[in-house]
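Bug #77: duplicate submission created two jobs. Keeping one. Sequence:
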Amino acid sequence: MTTRSALRFSLSLLLLAGTTSSTGCKKDEDESTDPETATSETTEPADEGPTYPPQDPDPAEIGQALERYLLGHYEEAAGLVQPLSESLLEDSQIRARGLAASILAMSLAHGLAENGRAPAQLAQEQAQRLDDPELTQMAGLAKVSYLVGLQEYAEAEEILDTVGPLETSHAHLVALFRAEATLGQAFEDDKLKNPEKLDAAAKHYETVWESASAGYYKGRAAEGLTAVGYYKKDKDQTCKWATEALEQYETAGASDYMLEGPRGPADAMRCPAAKADESGE
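Kept job's structure:
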């Protein structure tokens, strides 16, 4: 899928008129066209498919659902956008329906990866109808979400190479998915086989940590760095980033499910911060 421009509202018609020149004129006279021998060719307009009206503003539920998703409240996120993905059927609602389906796919994939497949497909169908970079990117991330869940990391990375460069407001989300896909490729049969992928994933997480301001982005980045530290058997890094992740998550209002992410490695490494957090201190 390539980067697209703004939505077009009309078809273009290209008319090429070809003429032949008379050969009976003298060389020192101006050449003229013989109307009896002149011919013209008209090319058919390119079939660019149907055009669509300007899109309606995004429903507020879409932004709300994305935030709930990022905080790990997956059922709530799905509940906000599933009705939209089913009811927004007008040509002016293609973008909204596609975005809703994208967030639905990402939310459902966290429970069971295959559950994200159908809404991801719906999102891609909507994206193919519009020249909308944000919708194209979100539909791509929807597919990435269930591919990561299926541990199809290389295929997920290929999609990220396509939709990642699109200029939208979701650069942090793209980087987090890329980090997760890279981290997954460090393992084969649940064994660490490509340790260099740990460092590559860490760079993506660090980029998000340094550039993001929202707690849900910083928390996810810190959680990823916690995992990297754990897999490298680096207690200092594991404990440091677990503390950061828990702080960001708690401040932002993340779900208990999200809090369990950094707590697992921290407990395994016997990090003091994790013990204090569990005791409520």
